[in-house]
């Protein structure tokens, strides 16, 4: 039975506008640049575009610090350009999902300007203002109202001299947290969402939405939390996620704004477990359609460390975690499927084999992700096999999270080569170098000077070369998307992991109504030989997709796979 939920067979493409395509030569991507590239998305075959923030912003966190929720920042263009983009997408049968960043605003948002102007301003309680800790000199270390830490280094509280109180910011001081306990705040957000829906948007990606419910004590204080070093967030900022009223707030938002509309909603949920996700995404609970988990992208963090404390990934850990999410949401709820976004390093450099097997590893990682049960997300450039930036100097980085951490780490005496290495592996700027469109100077991204350096490997890694090469990563993504659009077993089939203990091969079977899809991938630099047991018979099924079309293929149960070789067989 086809689900009424169109987003279950859809593929989403994330655009980080600042780095996608510049149309006016200022070195920063913009909306008209996106409009110029819609044919690329059409050829890839994606159904939805998730657009990272384009709203007015001082750009402290590249637009995730919003000073006006209902306009377009002139650096990206105008509301008219946005309407033209929406029309251009709808004309191609595609949809637009906006980034909803409402855990916090910019400190330049009028709401915060009013709130901070005086203790009795009507909007004072739209944010979290608290007195200094008793017995401490205000503004000195230890006087913060609680021990919460910010995600971009430092305490989560900043002292405001004018009114003698601290305000809360889980991210930078330029990103004060909204107080969702206040019904006026919730109503204002709901009204803003309603107006975006009226402008024609088709859904929302909700930025750190599981942080909006804070653990408030009866006396209104935000109590200390145990300092756990690296938290589930993948950074050392202990505070509450999945707070006591989160489901109430999301359900209220659903009932007030989302109900009865065929929108796509995805909640970015750092620290959420699959048990939490079942509560967030069970349709009977009417909260959101799916969540972004962080568990799999935190598997290469040293135990108890932060994202900067590097550890190698164990494939069996990745298979176990992804399978737990597949099984955990099999009966009720829905998965998002992603390797990349604007906050994560690029997968082919992180867990692929960029040097020796860049194309095959990019293809095989995409294959194992896209044929699982859930909605796949493709991040700009991932479909071309773009790599990390390979910066060699701290000064090359722009991202507030990287810049702040590097300064703090060097201050703490961490050797510079360790800082440079951690940044090269994990900085969010790895995802933010301009999209590589062709081999021309600046990769066809801009005629000016790009805000962040274009990767020199754009001379060979670019969309134009990929489109011309039938064996490219691009065409492999295009075929994966076709399989999802054409095969019910990909959308609705159940999932069964094979070979859980194998450290080279990721293999699973999807099954629905008699159809069975075998996905088998060697995610290692060495040849692999595995015995699929009774499932080996599925190797006789039609070969739908492979990285190695010329490989000799036996008929199981043993299968020999070249480094990074993957195959997809359909038995129906
Ligand atoms: O990300 C929240 C978040 O948890 C990440 O910043 C995470 O801590 C980081 O990726 C670990 O390296 C969202 C947005 O995606 C991010 O771009 C914003 O900076 C952040 O919220 C604040 O809005």
From TrEMBL:
Protein name: Glucohydrolase
Matching InterPro entries: GH, GH13_cat_dom, Glyco_hydro_b, O16G_dom_2, SusG-like_C
GO annotation, biological process: oligosaccharide catabolic process
Organism: Tessaracoccus lapidicaptus
Family, as annotated: Belongs to the glycosyl hydrolase 13 family.
Keyword Hydrolase in record: yes
A GO term for molecular function: alpha-amylase activity
Keywords, alphabetical: Glycosidase, Hydrolase
């Amino acid at each position: 039975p086809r689900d009424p939920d169109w987003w279950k067979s859809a593929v989403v493409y994330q655009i980080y506008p600042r780095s996608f395509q510049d149309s006016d030569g200022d070195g920063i991507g913009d909306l008209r640049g996106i409009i110029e590239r819609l044919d690329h998305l059409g050829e890839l075959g994606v159904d939805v575009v998730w657009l990272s923030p384009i709203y007015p912003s001082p750009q402290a966190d590249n637009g995730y610090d919003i000073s006006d929720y209902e306009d377009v920042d002139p650096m990206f263009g105008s509301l008219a350009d946005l309407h033209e983009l929406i029309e251009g997408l709808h004309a191609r049968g595609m949809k637009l999902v906006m980034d909803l960043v409402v855990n916090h605003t910019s400190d330049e948002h009028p709401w915060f300007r009013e709130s901070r102007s005086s203790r009795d301003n009507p909007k004072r309680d739209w944010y979290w203002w608290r007195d200094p800790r008793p017995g401490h000199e205000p503004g000195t270390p230890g006087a913060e109202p609680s021990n919460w830490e910010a995600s971009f280094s430092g305490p989560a509280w900043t002292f405001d001299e004018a009114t003698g109180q601290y305000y809360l910011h889980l991210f930078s001081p330029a990103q004060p947290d909204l107080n969702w306990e206040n019904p006026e705040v919730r109503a204002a957000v709901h009204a803003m969402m309603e107006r975006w829906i009226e402008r024609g948007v088709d859904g929302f990606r909700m930025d750190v939405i599981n942080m909006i419910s804070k653990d408030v004590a009866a006396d209104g204080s935000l109590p200390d939390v145990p300092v756990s070093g690296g938290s589930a967030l993948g950074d050392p900022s202990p505070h509450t996620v999945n707070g006591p009223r989160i489901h109430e707030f999301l359900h209220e938002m659903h009932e007030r704004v989302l109900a009865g509309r065929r929108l796509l909603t995805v909640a970015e949920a750092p620290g959420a477990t699959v048990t939490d996700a079942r509560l967030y995404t069970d349709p009977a609970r009417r909260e959101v359609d799916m969540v972004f988990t962080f568990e799999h992208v935190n598997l290469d963090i040293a135990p108890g460390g932060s994202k900067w404390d590097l550890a190698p990934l164990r494939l069996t850990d990745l298979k176990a975690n992804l399978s737990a999410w597949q099984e955990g949401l099999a009966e009720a709820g829905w998965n998002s499927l992603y390797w990349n976004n604007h906050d994560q390093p690029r997968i082919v450099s992180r867990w692929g084999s960029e040097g020796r097997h860049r194309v095959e590893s990019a293809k095989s990682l995409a294959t194992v992700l896209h044929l699982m049960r859930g909605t796949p997300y493709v991040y700009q450039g991932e479909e071309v096999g773009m790599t990390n930036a390979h910066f060699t100097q701290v000064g090359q980085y722009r991202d507030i999270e990287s810049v702040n951490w590097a300064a703090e780490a060097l201050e703490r005496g961490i050797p510079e080569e360790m800082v440079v290495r951690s940044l090269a592996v994990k900085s969010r700027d790895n995802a933010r170098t301009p999209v590589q469109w062709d081999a021309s100077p600046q990769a066809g991204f801009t005629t000016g000077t790009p805000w962040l350096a274009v990767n020199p490997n754009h001379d060979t890694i670019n969309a134009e070369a990929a489109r011309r090469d039938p064996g490219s990563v691009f065409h492999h993504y295009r075929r994966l998307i076709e399989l999802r659009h054409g095969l019910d077993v990909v959308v609705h089939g159940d999932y069964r992991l094979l070979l859980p203990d194998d450290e080279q091969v990721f293999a699973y079977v999807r099954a629905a109504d008699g159809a069975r899809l075998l996905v088998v991938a060697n995610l290692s630099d060495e040849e692999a030989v595995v015995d699929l047991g009774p499932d080996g018979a599925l190797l006789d099924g039609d070969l739908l997709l492979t990285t190695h079309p010329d490989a000799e293929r036996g008929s199981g149960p043993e299968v020999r796979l070249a480094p990074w070789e993957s195959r997809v067989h359909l038995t129906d």
